[in-house]
Amino acid sequence: MYNYHNLNDIEFEELCKDVMQRRLSANLRLFSRGRDGGIDLTDNTHSHNIVVQVKHYIRSSYANLKTALKNEVEKVNNWRPKQYYICCGKELTAANIREIYEMFSEFMMTDHNIVTLKEIDEFLQNTENADIVRKHYKLWLYSSNILGEIYNQNVFIDCETLLSDINEDCKSFVPTHIYEVCMEHLINHGTLMLTGGPGVGKTLTSKMLVLYFATQGYRIRYTTNGDITNIKNSLSHDKEQKEVVLLDDCLGQHYFKMKQSQEDELLSLIKYTKLFTNKKLILNSRITIFNEAKERSYEFNNIFEQKKLVNYIINMDEITPLEKAKILYNHLKLKNIPEDYYSAIIENKNYLKIVQHKNYTPRIIEHVTFEHNYSRVLPKLFFNFIIDNLTNPHDVWKNEFEQRLQSIDRAFLTTLYSLTDTYIRHDILKKCFLKRLSTMNNIDSTVDQWSLVLARLNQSIINIVDLKGKQLIGVINPSVNDYLKLVFTNNLLELNTIRDSICNALQFERCYSKEELPNIYYQLIIDETIHEIDFADIHQKNYFITSQIFEHHIKNINYTPIIFDYLSNSYYYNYSHGNWLTHFEVLSASLSDEFYHFYSIDQFIHSKDSISNLLDGVDLDELVMTINLLNEFFEAQETGPPWFEQICKEKLDESILNYIEGINTSDYCGNYDMGELIREHTKSYWYKGDVDEDVDKSSVVSDLEKKIISDIEEEVQEKLSSLEVRFQQLLHTPTDFYIDTTDIENAVDSYLRDSYQESYHNNSSDQSLIAEIEAIFER
User: Fold this and answer.
1) Which of 50, 65, 200, 239 is the most exposed place for a label (fewest CB within 10 A)?
2) Measured distance CA(139)–CA(144) in Å, rounded
């Protein structure tokens, strides 16, 4: 018999739900006692055709069970189900069963409606129901002696590090959907890759998968140091020998330092284990390094492209609210949270606010349920304490930042925050960090401090993401940034140290207030130290310098080449900086009496090639404004060059076409009454006594296309209307142009889908999910 003693009440109810659903071929839903007056499982919350009452009572006497069931008689009479079942966590005698049946005989076909623990076990012992057993991991885990064998080198080979805290892990583990999918895949296919960000549960999921196969007679081999050759050589060549290999962080902590030989060894091991049905291989890696590996190695990527090895991703955002609720419940129960504290979670269904919080992580839940943390607040404030930690998890990161990190790690994090609160390119952060490092004392320059810091922080605070072959670095959770903001703003000494080491333009806006920035920018231009600062590219740098020169009325002949380069090559670049002058404002300032002659703008403005470059690629709105500005200047100076009109015509024609080609037709579809258009092209007819409708979708799309083309023509004319008449007369606005109708078709399809969709579907789903979460906490 399986060991049912380690199942808590929630887990036993979940087990009975799976058992009874299969026995009755019915979908059952779990509800809290508060919602349905005692119902545990039912097929219908309104009619109660089937009601299943679950009584755990594995450690209680039959007398206690009988008393509890007597209290249910009146409720059952009120529900009046067609079939009433009792699932009991006890073994009952024939006399016990007869006595219970007499209480509820009106609603039971036979006494077989009373399902005892023995009958549950017999059902689960049937191989056809092995999937239910696998799902409820405590059944197979505690029914074996596997936890007593974790130091047996004949079973767990070199697994001491992996299983050092396995007892605690087993109690708090929640078998999520991804765990079940991975289990099924391993059983059927033998190998898998498990990837995800730091802290999402890759290692814990891998541990629980390993334990299952250990109970099935497999020997476990484990490594986390990349020593793949020894693992492969140690595998038995006996194809009947059951073995599981777990490679933790199989691609290394930093893929860019991984040797080519290790990559080859890994590929060799994957191919080798696939030769034997009794060899299982579990690999896990950070998703970023996994993506890098696929980009770098054609053969490695090919294994996944051809599905020779399948990758499963654990994403915190994809862990369901129900799974998060179970994680919360497990921590509350495992740590024996006092009743008065627990009540604060139940009140007003506060648990729903916790599991739906955007910053929810198992790490924070673990933190707030440690006694030394929650005991600092009164029981009635426990919920507020949890929400405060989720919203502003200062205590979690304060402890990490002040007590666990080295000074060099803290400098790294504040440098990261000085650049971004999302992600920043690896090379940009590295340069800024090394500049910051140069200001610190007692730093050992003989070692690669950058790599050492990444190695230390990557598993706890930072995350590395691969984007098209480039590494981006950021913190693992927005709550880390919340804490760093406090450190950054409250520690003036550290802030000033970072300011002294700024080497990237991004850092200014994060290190200085809006009020301080103008003077800082002014000083950079005056001192010419701006040349020491990195920008996104040369266009952004030239734009910034030129903008600041004219905004602060700076005259320095050394900047003339930069101004010319900006006007020729960077005028059309779009950088959204609210504190900088716009391109039009910069050009207007350059034509003013103050700067026109000082910076020799006349040499630029009267050059055909220069004006052509200036107007090249400018969007239609800004092009019209720029042409008007230049035309007004030439007319005032009476120096209009003869080639000016022709260049304007060419650039306007080109810009109009670019504008039309860049149109997103889906943006226009919402401007029209889609329902009216569809009704105009819908035919109704009788078919077998019913009214049927046929929508002529192609006609709807055609009408929308005509309306959108007409609107686009009007928009273009409106944009050109501010031009002087002689320029308007030069233009030939296209009246017959093509637009892609794909988005229009999609918009029509979307409208039709929304019209036919049953409105109650989502509401029912949401209510069902909430009811299941309520059933966990309100007992």
Assistant:
1) 239
2) 9
* Cα three-residue angle 516-587-564, rounded to 5 degrees: 95
Residues 6 or more apart whose CB falls under 8 angstroms from that of 671 comprise: 711
> By CB neighbour count within 10 A (0-12 exposed, 13-18 middle, 19+ buried), where does 284 fall?
buried
Structural domain range at position 425: 398-511
pLDDT digits (tens, 9 = 90+) for 426-451: 999 999 999 999 999 889 889 999 99
Average pLDDT over residues 512-519: 92
CA–CA separation, 726 and 645 (whole Å): 9
What is the amino acid identity at position 662? G
Is there a single domain that holds both residue 166 and residue 314?
Answer: yes
Whether 384 is in a domain gets the answer yes
C-beta separation of 644 from 634 below 8 A? yes
Closest CA to 720 of 640, 632, 649: 649
Q: Which of 552, 500, 562 is nearest to 522 (CA)?
A: 552
Helix (H) or strand (E) holding 118: helix 117-125
CA angle 160, 166, 167 (to 5 degrees): 130
Residues 278, 148: one domain? Answer: yes
pTM of the entire structure? 0.54
The Cα diameter of the chain in Å comes to 115
Lookup result for tokens 């419940």 = 329
Residues 28, 21 contacting (CB under 8 angstroms): yes
Rounded to an integer, what distance in angstroms lies between the CA atom of residue 540 and that of residue 542?
Answer: 6
In terms of DSSP bridges, do strands 279-286 and 29-30 run parallel, antiparallel, or are they unpaired?
unpaired
Domains contained in the chain, number: 5
pLDDT at 161 over 70: no
In a domain, 381, yes or no: yes
Least confident segment among 154-158, 219-223, 386-390: 154-158
How far is residue 85's CA from residue 23's CA, in Å, rounded to a whole number? 12
Predicted local distance difference test score (pLDDT) of residue 260: 59
Report yes or no on 213 lying in a domain: yes
The DSSP bridge partners found for residue 684 are: 693
